[in-house]
Amino acid sequence: xxxxxxxxxxxxxxxxxxxxxxxxxxxxxxxxxxxxxxxxxxxxxxxxxxxxxxxxxxxxxxxxxxxxxxxxxxxxxxxxxxxxxxxxxxxxxxxxxxxxxxxxxxxxxxxxxxxxxxxxxxxxxxxxxxxxxxxxxxxxxxxxxxxxxxxxxxxxxxxxxxxxxxxxxxxxxxxxxxxxxx
Length: 182
What we know:
By secondary structure, this protein is mainly β. The protein has helices at 2-11, 18-22, 26-29, and strands at 13-16, 34-41, 46-47, 56-66, 69-81, 87-93, 109-110, 115-116, 123-124, 126-128, 131-139, 144-152, 157-165, 168-171, 177-181. It has a single domain (2-181), classed as CpcT/CpeT domain (Lipocalin, Beta Barrel).
């Protein structure tokens, strides 16, 4: 449980990659996003949770600005521990009306309306000297693959997300995004 609390503490808050973005050349900036993550605990809005439920729901808002165009997405993740005590991240499937919702628009959400994604392969974190790392490889369809790599520490959230259709990357970048708390 202590590692679960630490992961949630590391992930909760407002982050951006301004330091990383400013260090890039103008040419690199044209191909790499300025990104913001707002991560907010969601458990207080989840009603009708089972009494013995000990997981933590986190709402993530992501803003990516690339070539002067901003894209927004939001996700809900469930963090829990497995039998060995390791922290596990699971993606949550939400009702249509909650898809890409901003946190400040959310009202009570019934626990029974949420389900674990059957397409997202859970990410298991390994802890070493206060840094948590994990990687997940998911097949969303026969040809669509999603790869998520994370490294969480007091220093930064280092996140690399890539979506492939066959061999072609349709989302993601050559380097991870390095988010720092703001």
